[in-house]
Amino acid sequence: MTTTLIDNIGLLVTHEQERAERTGASLVIEDGVVAWVGAGSPAADERIDAGGRCVIPGFVDSHSHLVFAGDRSDEFEARMAGRRYEAGGIRRTVRLTREATDEQLLANARRLVAEARAQGTTTLEIKSGYGLSVADEERSVRLAATLTPEVTFLGAHVVPEGVSREDYVDLVTGEMLDACAPHSRWIDVFCETGAFTVDESRRILTAGIARGLGARVHAAQLGESDGVRLAVELGAASVDHCTYLSDADVEALGGSATVATLLPGVEFSTKHPYPDARRLLDAGVAVALASDCNPGSSFTTSMPLMVALAVREMGMTPAEALAAATLGGAAALRRTDVGHLRVGARADLVILDAPSYVHLAYRPGVPLAHRVLSTSPMLAS
Ligand code: NIG
Ligand code: FE
Fold first, then answer.
1. Whose CA is nearest to atom 8 of ligand 1?
2. For 172-181, how does the pLDDT look when each residue is reduced to its tens digit (9 = 90+)?
């Protein structure tokens, strides 16, 4: 058994019930698990001197699309010049993804995983959704499963070219689900105008749930949608985007176990208004922040950027934004072993090159991850 002491921590965020953060604390890790938190410097095999820095739980990025090929910076450039975001751009990435080899897809995904890790992400969900055929979706979830246990089957991203809606929903709920379920923990659907209707989404999610997958939903990205209440009705772990919400949506979320996952990288990249996190928090809704890293609507792996945007644009305090990017992401993945540093948690943490996590928003765009400790094999140093 190896023990590691991290001491001389200026500010330690544990998300303990009684006190979320401590000053002047130390932490002991035993075999990859937080074994002790307190004052003083108990004996250990190794010692890491935090040098007065702030230590936070590793970020839990509960929403990304990292299995893809190609670049869509031209669409971003056009949007910055006033063009609207359209979900149809997904099909462009589908064409390029299908043409790529397994090695190319994996190399690209690995590069992005490494990029996320360098910024403090220690748990990462990855979705399929740029294959949209049985073979290409199976390949996407199979490759994603080599990178993370949090794999989401998103065959229902859009209806691909050359296939009728009816036939495609049959395929997603039949042969494609059969091929993808063994590699996946979750099923997701893009419930939005231009993608799938509420009825189609219900059918797809129900089929996935019957196969033992947990449900997640993309909804209310481009406009209000009954997809939010569908997510609540089906007991989805998370409904993601939540940019346009009615009062009824907020009320339904407030009384549910479904997390509202906000993805401000999308609003940054599409010029849509940022979601109102304050409204959700005040209504008692559990909120997560995630990157939605994908080549179309949010090509960033940076969780610190999500925290900065949430504080600057969405009415969250720095403490709320940090909690949403760690504990909130864990709740969105129904994980209790990550997102916090209470005794018993996985020792996934970030030593920030800053005295406080407030600097994540105060110093936007600055690489503040001094050291990242991760117990996930793909996210380890
Ligand atoms: O999460 N909402 C749907 N899917 C992605 C966008 C994908 C794309 O434009 O390629 C998202 O924003
Ligand atoms: Fe997404």
1. 296
2. 999 999 999 9
